[in-house]
Amino acid sequence: MPLLRSLTSIMVVTAILSFMMGCNGLAGSNKSGHAEGASRSLGADESAPTDRWTTLRIELFERNNKPVGANSITDNYITQYIQKHFGDPARIKVEFITIPRAEEVGRLQVLMAANQAPDIVFTYDLPTVYNFVTQGKLTDLSPLLDQYGQDLKTVLGEEILSYGRINGMQFAIPAKRVLTARSTTLIREDWLKEAELPLPETTEQFYQALKAFKKIRLEKYGETIYPYGHIDYYHIAPLQYSFWDWGRITEEDLYADPGWIMPGNKEAFKFLNQLYHEGLIDPDFHLDRYAQQFQKDLVNGRVGAATPNTIEPVYMGYLAELQKNDPNAILTPIDPFTNANGKKTKPILEKTGMYIMVPKTSRNAEAAIKYLNWMAQPENYITLQNGIEGVTYEMENGLPVTLENDDANTLLFNYFDYCIILNGKYVSSTDEQLNLKANASIPSFEDFALQSVEYGMNDGIATPRIPTILPSEIKYSAILNDKNDEIFVKVLTAKPEEFDSVYDQEVAEYMMMGGRQVQEEKHRAYQDHK
Description:
Elements: H1 3-28, E1 54-62, H2 77-90, E2 92-100, H3 104-113, E3 121-123, H4 126-134, H5 142-148, H6 150-162, E4 165-166, E5 169-170, E6 173-177, E7 185-188, H7 189-195, H8 203-221, E8 228-229, H9 237-243, H10 251-256, H11 265-277, H12 292-299, E9 305-306, H13 312-315, H14 318-325, E10 331-334, E11 346-348, E12 352-357, H15 365-375, H16 378-386, E13 393-396, E14 399-402, H17 406-411, E15 422-423, H18 432-438, H19 446-457, E16 460-462, H20 471-493, H21 499-529
Parallel strand pairs: 1-2, 6-15, 8-9, 11-16
Antiparallel strand pairs: 3-12, 4-5, 6-12, 7-9, 7-10, 13-14
């Protein structure tokens, strides 16, 4: 790249970052307490002053889902517990840097490019991790993990940690995913009873239920609703998989080929296009990328069915809010989407969650590993995930049982954003059933949660994983992700008579924009690995 272009790029990134800092205090940094700034390295003849504090800056997702009455996500019982029990004994000021969940990859890339990222950052996007690795942006945590991370290594285990290791260097600490069920379809059973319909067991029955919901709510109550909510590329996957011709899809295809060209995928989107034009999904679905409006619509009786993350209505609190608003509401897990062979195929998740990293520019890598190791100690992850014993939970037979009160609702709505080494509540390294019960620990919603997990795992298919960096994926990932969103909206909203041509044209563009290169490189990687 010419020098002038490089300098221009740096100036642009710096300008963007300066704007962010001016408007938001570095994307929402909380201000308080001890001395700011990272500690510098000490020379051989120097010793640290006894009153010196280090500031450890940690990324925190801002989801804009704070319940009424909840404290700030950067200043509450959990953040105070972290400061008191980890920070103060080590003379470390813990500072949380908020980044909008909907913009996390872009914001993180800007901060990393400008060398202004927090000391602990994370993402679910693996190509972004690989991109940082190839740019030399990440700290090799291997020696620090060996020296300060014994509890962390015990909780995560070698298999999980190996997914963050590249060429023998630990560039990321993957979170442990406690449950691998990805998404579960839910339906308003009370509305079904009103329509004299059974719980749907097939795609056709599900479709008929949506039509009945729309008709009855309009004719009987004068309400215009859009029965099927939470419409995005990720969450419609169980429906999508039910249309695929699995007899023509190999494990290699599942790994390497984009969903747009899978046999049967076009038919899946033609069905979604039909739902759109029949008014069965919200015409503004594309404006609700992270389902904030969906939760409000569900709680306020404007959604009859959806396929959110498994157990999400419980752990994010909106099932409780729905029942508070409407005591007669019954939200029930179902498993309706059925393929030609009678299977309920759907994707399930990998064993890893987010990838936690320490930028190479951080001077606090040691403190970062000590923090993650502290988090891996049982008394700490129990508190981070469950709150205050006797106030938000009680221990019963070694299991934290969530209390059903306002304190729990206003404290635990985003517990997973603090306990970042674990995706899902965790109590045992050996008893998976106990971990399952931990994630179904609210008595009123225990059956709902257990049924959700069962359906979320039924006929589940895990996408193969090949441990290699793919240059084409790094190069085209952002472009193709944007194109995915564009295609999704265009094919769902296309005029029915133009659907085929729109679908074919958009998918052809996707393949020309880098999809073909990624596909070919993935096929080669799969064959080399096998």
